[in-house]
Amino acid sequence: MTDRVEGAGIEASSLLPLALLNTVTLLWGTQHAVIKLILQEDLSPGVTNFARFGIAALIFSPWTPGVLRDTPSIPDLLTGQVGVGDKEGGELGAADGGGGGGGAAAAAETWRAGAELGVWMFLGFAFQSIGLGLTTASRSAFLLYLNVKLVPFFAFVLEGRRISTPTWISAFLAFVGTVLLSSDGTPPNLGDFWSVLAAATSAMFILRLEKYSGSCDPSQLNSANLWITAGLCGAWAAWEVTVRGVDVSMALEGIQAQAPLIGYLAVVTTALTNWMQAVGQRSVPAERAAIIYAMDPVYAAGFAYLLLGETLGPAGLVGAGIITGAALWSQGKQMEEVDGDEDRVGDKDV
């Protein structure tokens, strides 16, 4: 009985992060077409991103590190554990930045982590927005998720990490699929360049998130990350107004007109997905998570077709199939490792 119960616990705890990251990827797939719709209305990317991340930061403001010390963590809110084990929760919070504030040292560490992640996130979304103004939503999504190939490369080069053969194979297959998806018959353009830069910064975000998500409370880490990103987007918006001459009143009217779309980006594809990503990557390695994220352009192509009427040719359909196969294979390998853990637990308790 013991081995079955503990084995079921291992399986459930391993399936949840994978489910979270797959849900994140599906939701991300919607944002490319939504951003394209907003930019088609001539709303500046800096102002758009400032509104997006500003709203998202406000949503997570109760979990701002070191500010509201008695705010329960999101998992406690979801499971009804608010107020249970206050002393123990406080001790854990002091150790890892979780629970309700966790002390000055934990808050400072969370802010340092959030600052670095915020820079990478800002650059990624800034480059993505610029690229989307110069190329199609589906093509931008395909190029952006070159990060699937860059994450294991950066992990190998920058951290000396040993990357498993299946992960390299999955990354290569995803690369081949991306090449096919982006081969839509049009020559490369400046938007492609910005999309590739977005891929590189996104890869660094995924890699660094793995480092910090294990030691910081996901809710507080997400809050710090969003505040830093919102501040940088605010500076970008100010530059657009003062240097590029963007009209403030017209920008505000544009935000009001696009409020439903901007609200969706802020609440669903920023605040919610950032938190889910931070939770999921606590137990899923960055290079493995990147393979899951490779499904983003496949989902993006579907939503681009539904919302914008963009279509894929035969090569693009083949590429989508290859990426899907690589993602499913990678997740299958992870589940094989979970089964191995179950077997070891069972052997230990017999």
Automatic annotation (TrEMBL):
The keyword Kinase does not apply. Keywords: Cell membrane, Membrane, Transmembrane, Transmembrane helix. GO terms for cellular component: plasma membrane. The keyword Transferase does not apply. The chain crosses the membrane at residues 117-135, 141-158, 165-181, 193-209, 221-239, 259-278, 290-308, 314-330. It is a multi-pass membrane protein. Pfam families: EamA. Coiled coil: none annotated. Residues 190-328 form the EamA domain. Its main location: membrane. InterPro entries: Diverse_Substrate_Transporter (IPR051258), EamA_dom (IPR000620), EmrE-like (IPR037185). It is found in: Cell membrane. This is EamA domain-containing protein.
